[in-house]
Amino acid sequence: MASLDDLTNTFVLSTASSDAVLHEVPKAIDDPSRQRRAHHKSRTGCENCKRRRVRCSKSTPCASCIRRGERCHRPGNNGPIPPAPDQVLPTSKPTDATVNLLHLKLFHHFQTSTCDTLVFPQETWTRVLPLCFEFEFLMNALLCVSARHLAFLNPQNTSYPTSAATHLGRALSQFRSELAQKPTATNADAFIATSVLLQIEVWASTDSVHSSNGVISDRIFPFSSSLKQVFLANVPFLSRQPSVLLPLLARNPADNLVASARVSEETDLQFRNHFGYHRPINNNMLNLPCITRDQQQQPPPQSPEINELHPPGYDSAITRLSLLLSFLPETRHTESVTTDSPSPSHLLSDIARSIFTFPVQCHGPFAVLVERNDPHALLLLYHFYRAVGVLLSGSRYWWALKRAAVLEGGLGGVVGKLD
Questions:
Q1: Residue whose C-alpha is closest to residue 214's, from 43, 357, 413
Q2: Which helix (DSSP H) or strand (DSSP E) does residue 150 occupy?
Q3: Can you give the pTM of this predicted structure?
């Protein structure tokens, strides 16, 4: 009796000759090459391969999990086996993605908004921005200031101060390392821009300002003094490089201010007498930082010996402060210069830059007086920060407003108790 296999033979029609011949092909089971290999389902595959219904190799981790960067887990194992670290690129965690998005936001905000509020023109910062991708310390300093600006605009968002502090720490560490390893190879504009941004951060942050038991701690003066020393030490190397920022540093904003203020010799003597180191501190000296009408009509004489009584650095601080005070609304012979006034915008920018550089340009001995809480030095600082709050009112020069308000109140309370 014929079996089913006997009925499954294959026949082929051959036309090689003139007569068609039908040939019988042997049964497939007689041809080993045509036999179908038996398939045995593996029960030891990993969970990922079972879920995808693909063949799993016997290695652990399996080839499929290594290729896909997944953890390979087999039934009966105590725990998942991580993929080989040298074969799989690490995947970004959600927290990393959030940080990267914040970086982009901070950089964009600086480029479109923050750079217009700083002491250099916006077009100058536009030319400096590409250096951020070459010098990481500059990038972190930039992101720090941008975060500080956003914290000013959005005080309810606590993530911005945290981000500013994080980038500040990185910028300081990287900047210090750069100067220690290769100060002569540092790019001039990257060095100057980072220094300016760090100074902006010190202005904007009031975390280091403390007022207690008659002691004021304002770290901006010792920080500025240290930054100035570092800059002067590197000037011989930086001046040999092409730079966008060095010519701007060479321009003194006081030149325009002196010409616009038209401060007479009498007014200058009156200011010097008002802040004279020989005068005892009293509450009346906390009033308007200007000369009363009686003083204007009869300016008190001042002998050269009075200046000799001033400690080092004090006289130059009076000179710089008197120029700023001459632009206050209550001062004679000048017009008010504020953000909302019709005065030329370039004059306001010169005032802002003169205020910004005041701690840097004050001689080192004056910073020592401030650290020692010298009463007369604190009196000068009180009037300085009061002038800052008046002359830079408005949101454009945001970095100066909070410090001015905090220090004016703190210094006023301390100096008032010295009467």
A1: 413
A2: helix 136-153
A3: 0.69
More confident residue, 404 or 51: 404
Residue of 392, 394, 387 lying closest to 408 (CA atoms): 387
CB 290 within 8 Å of CB 390: no
User: What is residue 258's predicted lDDT score, i.e. its pLDDT?
Assistant: 85
Answer yes or no: are the C-beta atoms of 119 and 131 closer than 8 Å: no
| C-alpha atoms less than 13 angstroms from C-alpha of 74 in its C-beta half-sphere | 15
Q: Minimum mean pLDDT among 8-17, 165-174, 293-302: which range? A: 293-302
193 neighbors 339 (Cβ within 8 angstroms): no
Long-range contacts of 235-242 (CB under 8 A, 24+ apart): 237/183, 237/184, 237/186, 238/186, 238/188, 238/191, 238/192, 239/188, 241/187, 241/188, 242/188
- Give tens-digit pLDDT for 56-104: 876 778 888 887 878 887 776 554 444 544 444 444 444 444 457 999 9
**Largest distance between two CA atoms of the chain:** 144
Number of Cβ within 10 Å of residue 164's Cβ equals 23
Residue located via tokens 């301390």: 414
Question: Which positions ≥6 away from 170 have C-beta within 8 Å?
Answer: 136, 137, 140
Domain boundaries of the chain, sorted by first residue: 45-86, 94-244, 251-416
- Nearest-angstrom CA–CA distance, 239 and 22: 99
For residue 40, which amino acid is it?
Answer: H
Three-state SS string across 188-256, please? HHHHHHHHHHHHHHHHHCCCCCEEECCEEECCHHHHHHHHHHHHHHHHHHHCCCCCCCHHHHHCCCHHH
254-261 and 314-325 helices, crossing angle to 10°: 60
- Cis ω for the linkage preceding 61 (within 30 of 0): yes
Please indicate whether residue 179 or residue 386 has the higher confidence score (pLDDT).
Answer: 386
Is residue 262 classed as helix, strand or coil in its secondary structure?
Answer: coil
- CB of 364 closer than 8 Å to CB of 313: yes
Q: How far is CA 318 from CA 241, 314, 323, 415, in A?
A: 35, 6, 9, 17
Query: Which tokens is 32 given?
Result: 């080993």
